[in-house]
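User: Let's play a game. I give you a shape written as tokens, and you guess the letters that built it. Ready? Here's round one.
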């Protein structure tokens, strides 16, 4: 379950949006090791792409939906649950998956390994080793999300061959050309991420 990712700044998100459709240029510099100081965790406000007329706009949204009086309590959305609620027309995700699908631009996302442990740099106690995942050759890429009332959640699905050795879930990573599918009527076809190849690196 994704609880950390490397977001773009609002300025970077806008630059990427402005560069869509133009070829032969890179909107962002490639950063080999994103600065963890700027990583996003549930409760962070980060730029997200939301539909705006016939195009997209950058919106600053808070990662996580409130639940039972707890702010940002639900920050991942299982695609299986969302699709069930979409067809049923009721449930926590019914409205968001129907009319609030959005795109979360990231440089990388992280997953905790199920069994590997390392010593915490702050406490010295054993903690799960974090793995950073990126889309090879991409300076940034998109995760599928849902949003409503100023909050967003990252949609998760079954892990593919790149992620399954580390974790039993993964964000729904969008490949080239798939953002329009996620925002369109046939979004359910993207639940299977078997064809997405990701590069991973273990944090020391």
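Assistant: Ready! My guess for every position:
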């Amino acid at each position: 379950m994704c609880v950390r990712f490397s977001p773009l700044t609002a300025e970077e998100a806008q630059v990427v949006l402005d560069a869509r459709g133009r070829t032969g240029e890179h909107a962002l510099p490639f950063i080999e090791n994103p600065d963890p100081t700027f990583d996003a965790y549930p409760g962070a406000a980060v730029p997200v792409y939301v539909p705006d007329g016939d195009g997209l706009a950058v919106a600053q949204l808070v990662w996580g939906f409130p639940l039972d009086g707890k702010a940002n309590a639900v920050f991942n959305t299982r695609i299986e649950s969302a699709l069930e609620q979409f067809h049923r027309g009721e449930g926590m995700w019914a409205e968001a998956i129907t009319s609030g699908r959005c795109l979360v631009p990231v440089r990388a996302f992280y997953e905790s390994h199920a069994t590997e442990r390392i010593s915490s740099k702050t406490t010295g106690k054993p903690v799960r080793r974090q793995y950073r995942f990126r889309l090879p050759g991409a300076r940034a890429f998109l995760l599928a999300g849902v949003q409503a009332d100023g909050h967003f959640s990252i949609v998760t699905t079954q892990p593919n061959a790149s992620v399954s050795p580390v974790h039993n879930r993964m964000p729904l990573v969008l490949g080239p050309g798939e953002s329009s599918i996620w925002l369109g009527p046939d979004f359910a076809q993207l639940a299977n991420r078997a064809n997405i190849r990701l590069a991973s690196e273990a944090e020391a």
